[in-house]
Specification:
This protein is α+β, with helices and mostly antiparallel strands and 467 residues long. It is built from eleven helices and 28 strands. The chain folds into two domains: 124 residues, Serine Threonine Protein Phosphatase 5, Tetratricopeptide repeat; 325 residues, Neuraminidase (6 Propeller). The chain has a four-stranded antiparallel sheet, with no helix packed on it. A four-stranded antiparallel sheet has the order 6-7-8-9, with no helix packed on it. Strands 10-11-12-13 form a four-stranded antiparallel sheet, with no helix packed on it.
Length: 467
């Protein structure tokens, strides 16, 4: 297949119900969408197939504006017959991913202005241009996302002291050298507003980065309750209202258009069981139970735990309490009903300082530490959880220790970055990636510095930054 033949192959597969060929052809069209949309045969694509392509996260284009232009060109090629499909097709265009100058081009599009089918799209665009903060679901297109590092700390270049990090880095390229040598080309994305942060959390909602809590330095009074929001399309920072409690070593997830922070350390003496919820619609935090509006606390006051959202449900794993007891537990958390226990992790007597990632329809826990006869040691064993059968199964070992690392899922692959070692107390700069097809962890190279207590996410960046 190539850009000139893939749509013919897709039509052939559809006509003869060749499911595997249809999937491969559709994947090819998605991966090369921009070039395919410029070809003659794109004009003959049936509406139902175009709509299916627009709905896919895997659609690859330099920007969402290019997706919009492709739809407009398709409609205008046979306006009399296709104008009736305009409203339905525009529902597949992710206007929230556009920069203001791109939204202005959409606003001036004659096809939308002069047709009733474009009315809803224009309303969305006008609302976005006037600062609409409503949190309708809008995922970035997966191939357009990059891996971003946020904050952390490391030993300075003179090995004199530890220094918190103010930089956001993104992985521009993953490169393979001779033999097994691999490197990552990192580029600076932005600079954190003061103060620096480590032991913080990040999460992404509608391609907007939320940076929460953590600490600015190493004293008990340096734990933060402040929160920031970063819009990568405009390169703009915004300060949010403070959380009610300072938190580090906590967990955070985005769930149903809201940001949840769960537990954490508040003063180097006491862990928290409280859960707070930030709602972008009204720019407020809420905590303590109160009907359906506010969040029920955790069963146990925890720090060093992990959280993830799978199939629309929040899960919390492991962590330590204020007496440094390490838990093997897994909880299903509901803001109204609180925690309900699921099957505990099976590897070791507990796990903390780890990460939990979504891999397909399962959860994977990796890294962190475990209780030993005397103190704590590195945990290299990983395991995966099946929510349907409420059971755990083995997973390939991590090649190196990763205590309090960053982690992210990108293009169906799991990334674990940095952190330290409980056994050696040394920081690590290595980035490991798990490939589900090869079923093994690969070392991809190093971070700019050996950061510990950092965070990471996947963001869609403007083309000007990636190029």
């Amino acid at each position: 297949m190539d850009e000139t033949s893939c749509l013919d192959v897709l039509a052939l597969a559809e006509a003869h119900s060749l499911e595997d060929l249809r999937r491969r052809a559709e994947d090819y069209v998605l991966a090369h969408f921009q070039r395919v949309a410029e070809g003659e045969k794109f004009r003959d694509l049936p509406c139902v197939q175009l709509q299916r392509l627009l709905e896919r996260d895997a659609l690859n284009a330099d920007s969402e504006l290019d997706v919009f232009r492709a739809v407009v060109n398709w409609v205008e090629d046979d306006k009399d017959q296709r104008l009736c499909h305009l409203s339905r097709l525009m529902q597949g265009v992710r206007f929230r991913l556009m920069r203001p100058e791109e939204l202005l081009e959409v606003q001036d599009c004659k096809l939308l202005v002069r047709s009733s089918g474009g009315k809803t799209a224009l309303e969305i665009v006008n609302n976005l241009l006037h600062g609409d903060k409503r949190t309708s679901d809008c995922k970035p297109r997966t191939p357009n996302q990059v891996l971003v590092l946020v904050g952390g700390d490391c030993v300075n270049e003179n090995f004199e002291r530890r220094e918190p990090n103010l930089c956001l880095w993104f992985a521009h390229r993953f490169m393979r050298g001779e033999g097994l040598i691999r490197t990552i080309e990192w580029r600076p994305l932005a600079r954190l507003p003061e103060p620096p942060r480590f032991r913080h959390c990040v999460c992404v909602l509608n391609n907007t980065l939320y940076i929460l809590g953590g600490r600015k330095y190493y004293g008990a009074l340096d734990i933060l309750k402040t929160a920031l929001r970063f819009d990568p399309a405009q390169g703009r920072w915004e300060c949010l209202p403070d959380m009610s409690s300072p938190r580090d070593y906590f967990a955070a997830v985005c769930h149903r258009g809201k940001v949840f922070v769960l537990g954490g350390n508040s003063d180097d003496m006491n862990c928290l069981d409280s859960v707070e919820c930030y709602t972008p619609d009204d720019n407020t935090w809420r905590s303590t139970p109160n009907l359906c509006k506010l969040s029920h606390p955790l069963d146990v006051a925890l720090c060093g735990h992990a959280a993830a959202v799978l199939n629309g449900e929040m899960f919390v794993s492991g962590g330590c309490d204020s007496r440094l007891r390490c838990y093997p537990c897994l909880w299903l958390y509901d803001p109204v009903r609180g925690c309900s226990k699921r099957a505990p992790m099976t590897v070791g007597a507990g796990r903390a300082g780890h990460v939990m990632l979504v891999a397909g329809h399962r959860l994977v826990v990796a890294g962190g530490l475990q209780p030993m006869l005397a103190g704590f040691g590195d945990q290299l064993q990983c395991e995966s959880y099946d929510p349907v059968h409420d059971s755990w199964s083995s997973f390939p070992f991590l090649p190196r220790p990763h205590l309090s690392p960053a982690a992210v899922t990108l293009d169906g692959q799991l990334y674990v970055l940095g952190g330290s070692s409980a056994d050696s107390a040394r920081d690590t700069s290595w980035v490991h990636r798990y490939d589900p097809q090869a079923k093994c962890w690969d070392k991809l190279g190093a971070m700019p510095r050996p950061y510990a207590d950092l965070a990471a996410c996947a963001l869609q960046l403007p083309v000007s930054l990636k190029s």
